[in-house]
## 1
Amino acid sequence: MNRSATALLVALAIAGCSKPAPDPVEQIVVRKPGDPAVTVPTPAARDATAVGKQAFAASCAACHAVTASAPAGVGPTLYGVVGRKAGTLPGFAYSAAMKGSGLTWSGEKIDTFLANPQDLIPGTAMSAGAVTDPATRQAIAAYLTSLRNGG
């Protein structure tokens, strides 16, 4: 089977597994003394985050949730992924490549990973990805970054 036929089959398989994005949930964050501060995004950052949320819903939500309590699906929940060591979220069966990557997720690493997952982590089990538009990748990374800050 040629490469384009394989890519088409993977895209169809992913599309068949898609489910509608969950409704947004309002959260109230209570900070205890000594907890790190929650940053409040500027209006421009909120706009970028809104664009990223839409891009995430279109590109990633079929496999990944973004709430702390979401069970693992095809992919792990990405709530709080920025700052987390790759392959360490309990309850998800990561590939050996992801677990052994030694990578700690940042907005920049997410952008690089979404550009071509196999380039950053050869052998990763993530079959989707390759978000070709740099602005879309950056918006998704900004959205995921906002989730660790109470967004």
## 2
Amino acid sequence: MIAKLVAPKLAHASRIRIKARLTGMNGGIDLEDENMVTPAERSTYGLYYVGQNIFYILLMTYLTVFFTDVGIPAATVAIIALVVKMWDAVNDPIFGGIVDNIKLKGGKFLPWIRISVFAIPLATIFLFAIPIELSLGAKIAWATIGYILWDTAYTLCDVPIFGIVGSMTSNVRERIDLVSLGRVAALMASLLIALLIPTIRKQLGGWLPTTVALSFVAAITMAPICFAAKERVPDNSPGKVSMREMFSFVLGNKYMLFIFGAYILFGATHIGSGLGLYSARYLFGQERMQSIMTMAKLVPMIIVSAATPALARKIDKYWLYFWSFVIIVPLHLIWFFAGYSNVTVYLFMIVLTSIPAGFIMTLSFMFTPDCAEYGLYKTGISATGLSYSIQTFSTKLNQALMTAIGAFMLFLMGFVEGERAVQVSSFANNLFSATTLFPIVGSLLAIPLLYRYRLRDKYVQALIKCNDGEVSREDTEKELEGRI
């Protein structure tokens, strides 16, 4: 009987091995760090993101190009992307609920990560294996089915790899460091893909051999975490979460809707990421220019991502996030008026606009645990998997909307499909205008949403203390009254 009474307290104690102390609502947070993550776990966690984002960037950057290269019209590509996202709108929340409700042998998140090491490479190879000699109808069917399979396979990894951070450590700073490490690794993978594909695609014999080679490399980098990671933080969720509770959790979590609404607007309107190879081909006349453009974009983003944890310790991450959206507007206006006739100026503007974009890409994923704590506090429902499924849905919706909007803009510009097709004379100017002006629209729509976000780091720490039972709800409500 004594063991039964003591065990829950011991589990709770192990969950909060980091002792957090709130020094005051107008002061900072004093944290006594206790490292829980081993060096092997840190390195393999970063390596996983290299592999995962080889797949993600391959699709985000080159899927539209591949589809149009094999003869699928741009307008049809836009429709395919939207159809897939209709499925995605269903499968992400469902999978988030599965993660919360089904306890597999080997942990809450690790079993799904292990499955993804095989599922994503196979789905990616299938998607890029469309034979060019097929009829248009067969190509469209293959593309749609392949994209749905890839999207489903990617769902298997995206929720668990973010969610496992909370299972590996209860140290708040270690969590921030791991998320930042993942962002840096993801950007390094982006740089790798951007440099390799324009160089090796023709040497290897086309899209399919290139995809097979990249999938092999990516799978190797994703595998080590399956053996190194340990889910050491006890899962204190009360049990199964019903569909009704899932809806209540999401609809009652206004801050989650604000943050991810802004993030979706950011990603969906940065159509230049998906049209980069078109810009290299038709603005500058050579595909290899894509590598230089991507280096100008990703190098500052990598530096920003690496510096973000240190900055987030001194400045509330919300303000870094908010002002990054604001500064995008004047920078893209300057870029538009500067034009693209001067290559040096064009590349310099890529560098400048990539700095706020780097903060947004890194910080977006640091708000998910905060929103999960707020959701638990407001609704009493513990739904970590669901929270991360909303995050992954937002990421994939970004990619799909960016693909759809970009492809639809190609259609409006009169784009002619086919790798060696000749475009109308106005195409280059229209392409440049769209890629520089659309991000302004996204930022202007996102800023009002972010302005309403009230969760600051010091308030989140108070929610954590309440949710962990260290402080009563009455005291927490009194402390936070009028602030959230």
